[in-house]
Design brief:
2 domains; five-stranded mixed sheet; MYG1_exonuclease; 7 strands; disordered C terminus
C-alpha cells in the first residue's frame, strides 16, 4: 500500500520531483486521465483572456488536474508573453480553489501569494477581511484559497492582483 499509493501522494504533497537521474523516485499511475491533461491545459491557456482581461488567471474547467508541469512550457510559447499568476478550478466537492503559480516548477514560493491579512483565515473572518463574501479559507502560506463560487475565486485572484504593488515581492 505504501509504495503503490501513499509514497506517491506524500511525495507530490511535499514537492518532491518524480524523476532523479533517469529513474522515477515513485510511481504516478493513479490518474487515469493523464493523457488528456496537456490538451485540457492548452485549452485553458487559449481561453486566458476570456477568464480575465489581464491574462494572468487560468481556469481549469475539469477541476484540479495536474497542471504545473505543462503550464511553464505552454506559458513560454505565449505571444505576447504573459506570466500566469493564478489557476482557478473546482475541487472534488464542487467548491472553487484559487491556487498561486509557483515561481519554478518544484518551488514552494509563489509568484504572487494571496494577501498576508487573509492567510490562515476561514469563513466569515475571511469574508470580512477580504471583502469577498463566500470565502472558505486561505492557507497560512498564502499559496491556495477556497471559495464557494467561481466568481468568488476569480474575485480573490483579482483582488490579489490589484494589491500586488502593496505586497512584498519575493525574490
Amino acid at each position: 500500500m505504501y509504495e503503490n499509493f501513499v509514497e506517491e501522494v506524500d511525495a507530490v504533497d511535499n514537492g518532491i520531483s518524480q524523476w532523479a537521474e533517469g529513474e522515477p523516485r515513485y510511481c504516478c499511475d493513479y490518474r487515469h486521465d493523464h493523457h488528456a491533461q496537456p490538451t485540457l491545459n492548452l485549452l485553458a491557456i487559449l481561453s486566458l483572456f476570456q477568464v480575465d482581461p489581464s491574462g494572468e488567471i487560468v481556469e481549469l474547467a475539469k477541476g484540479g488536474c495536474p497542471w504545473k508541469e505543462h503550464l511553464y512550457h505552454l506559458e513560454s510559447g505565449l505571444s505576447p508573453p504573459v506570466a500566469i499568476i493564478f489557476v482557478i478550478y473546482t475541487d472534488q466537492a464542487g467548491q472553487w480553489r484559487v491556487q498561486c503559480v509557483p515561481k519554478e516548477p518544484h518551488s514552494f514560493q509563489s509568484r504572487l501569494p494571496l494577501p498576508e491579512p487573509w492567510r490562515g483565515l476561514r469563513d466569515e473572518a475571511l469574508d470580512q477581511v477580504s471583502g469577498i463574501p463566500g470565502c472558505i479559507f486561505v492557507h497560512a502560506s498564502g499559496f491556495i484559497g477556497g471559495h464557494r463560487t467561481r466568481e468568488g475565486a476569480l474575485n480573490m485572484a483579482r483582488a490579489t492582483l490589484a494589491q500586488r504593488s502593496y505586497l512584498p515581492q519575493m525574490s
